[in-house]
Amino acid sequence: MTLKPMVVSVALLCALPALARDQIDKSVDVKVDALLAKMTLQEKIGQLHQLSGREATGPESAKRASQLAEIETGNVGSMLNVKGAQDTRAMQALALKSRLKIPLLFGLDVIHGYKTVFPVPLGEAASWDLEAIERSAQVAAREASAAGLHWTFAPMVDIGRDPRWGRVMEGAGEDTYLGAQIARARVKGFQGARLGSTDRIMATAKHFAAYGAAIAGRDYNAVDMSLQQLYEVYLPPFKAAADAGVATFMNSFNSLNGVPATGSALLQRDILKGAWKYPGFVVSDWASIKEMVPHGYAADEADAAVKALNAGSDMDMEGEVYIAHLAQAVKAGKVPQKNVDDAVRRILRKKFEMGLFDDPYRFSDPKREQVVLADPQHRAAARDVARKSLVLLKNERNVLPLAKSGRRIAVIGPLADSKRDLEGGWVVSDVRGDVVTLLQGIRGQAPGAQVSYAAACAPGCANADGFAAAVDAAAKADVIVLAVGETWDMSGEAKSRTDIGLPGRQTELFQRLKATGKPVVAVLFAGRPMIFNEIADQADAILYAWFPGSEGGNAVADVLFGDYNPSGKLPATFPRNLGQIPITYAQTMTGRPVVDEKNIVYRSAYIDSPNTPRYAFGHGKSYTEFGYSGLRLDKATLRQGESATLSFELENKGKVAGTEIAQLYVRDMVASIVRPVKELKGFAKVQLQPGERRRVTFTIDPDTLSFFNGQLKWGAEPGAFKLMVGSASDDIRLDTTLQLQ
Ligand code: GLC
């Protein structure tokens, strides 16, 4: 594989979008160069060193003393895990004692909220609501920046197609198009239009790259894929973040085709800083530079430092190998001075853009912190996003919505009154606000109902001690609301699972409750797609709530009682069984496709399971019905470079207002490499009153029909394209064909 075609193709990919470089104030470059000229090699390397602040802001210790001394001598350029106006101010004051008084950057994992916890990112993705997602990131930025923080290590934009991998929770699901849209929305929410406002923070596109394709879904495992797949599926959300001006990238723990991403010049120099002309800086993942030694890619930590810096990994997060080995490496000629200078420039540029040289304390104002963190609007925003993230998977005989009075509702299950589990993983310690549990939400919104409660078992449901009491409560009720699922710590980093079913004895609990004959509404909490076939088959209704955050109980109750008509759609495929994994809607046809599930002899199929998933990408029900009709395509034939308009009429055929997420899928029927049977290329979220009809329009432009061919060249090939619109990837309502000349 020669680099040239790839760089050319990526240059095409980048053609002429609004390159971030243009946004950079040229005067900043002048200031950066002026400062750089004064810096010693040691001071430059200090800027590349990021220190975790747990010890430095903790109790007296030898390690604390040495870290404080490092900060004071200018050997630290950034800190993570320091938060709050007071602590950030104290650390900043230390850094300003150094010779050149270069301020610190403070970063933290503000993944889905700082004090106000929003749904986990996979849940937010289920809203397909870019404005709501942007708002969520904006609130997180407002709270974090008020707490002295400059930078979040989010959004995680890794495409995740393997639900065994616990970090699917942090991303936007399996789809490249949806993932790219959400990446852009999150960057805009965190950063605003331009860096420097004290109520926004720098964002990070992570983990670069293809971390979600870990073999066997086992976190940190190797990734091996064709460059065509890398370009087609995994890079576009990063490119979208870069085009949106994301301040930083974070590389990833995994090796990609044999090279650790942290040491990959292909990713960091050729693609990101070369073809994409990315002006920001790359921070390593936690100690990922040092980890190139166990990877077997670096002989020792000094070798790792050389390989990482030369490959374009600008800042060493908590690895302490740059500060220990780079000066010697430069003197020995193993690391060109220009590579160090480039890394330092990129970091200093962000500090200037954030206004930290003008006022290093501008984000660390205790009074402002107190006011902003008490803003009630943030909880209202969290409730709104949470409601929109909920996905109604099933609703037999319209058992939902529930009446608010005159009913006996038994709220049962280990997660029914859990606060911690509703927040999910990757939350900020010791600053979070209160959580409204499901039981509290139901009781608060249905004062006229008789609401009973039985936990049945503890979160995780290892034993059945409380089952009898739960069954007893169920027998006395008119309807059962069962709250089950993963505990908060069963997804996220280092939480891969070989069994993605309901933990413990929750399925048994469901079966005991179902046996009472009462209708069962299952509310499932999780950070990933789970497998729950008994509930899927036998529950009367199923609401997938992910981990909905601080206002989760209220949001779920809003949907259960019909105060919010559910609109969420799955951002990831839900398999029937583990054997189907990896499974995605965007699969290719094969030469022996299954046309009829009854005839699978010598077809691409299993003899013990259908190919179809339990729930498809894009699936999600409403309390009303939507009709699709009147498909129109203004040009049935297009010349290269031309665009067409596809439209159809959407109707709310039910009795309640509702919101439909209408999806556009495209299939390239014949191409130089086989193409997926469908790819999401657009969606429209449309709210309609009962009986209301609206014409929805999609633009079919050259990008809609383009892909990376076998030579990694981006473009649309002549031939037939099938255009499909529908309510889910497995619920296509209308289709037509377009010819490209
Ligand atoms: C972790 C994660 C990364 C996070 C970083 C800092 O290991 O991989 O997503 O931002 O370390 O906590």
From TrEMBL:
Residues 1-20 form the signal peptide. Gene3D superfamilies: Glycoside hydrolase family 3 C-terminal domain, Glycoside hydrolase, family 3, N-terminal domain, Immunoglobulins. The keyword Zinc-finger does not apply. Residues 660-729 form the Fibronectin type III-like domain. GO terms for biological process: glucan catabolic process. InterPro entries: Cellulose_Degrad_GH3, Fn3-like, GH, Glyco_hydro_3_C, Glyco_hydro_3_C_sf, Glyco_hydro_3_N, Glyco_hydro_3_N_sf, Ig-like_fold. Its EC number is 3.2.1.21. It catalyses: Hydrolysis of terminal, non-reducing beta-D-glucosyl residues with release of beta-D-glucose. Coiled coil: none annotated. It comes from the Bacteria. Keywords: Glycosidase, Hydrolase, Signal. GO terms for molecular function: beta-glucosidase activity. Pfam families: Fn3-like (PF14310), Glyco_hydro_3 (PF00933), Glyco_hydro_3_C (PF01915). PANTHER family: LYSOSOMAL BETA GLUCOSIDASE, PERIPLASMIC BETA-GLUCOSIDASE-RELATED. Belongs to the glycosyl hydrolase 3 family. This is beta-glucosidase. It comes from Pseudoduganella flava.
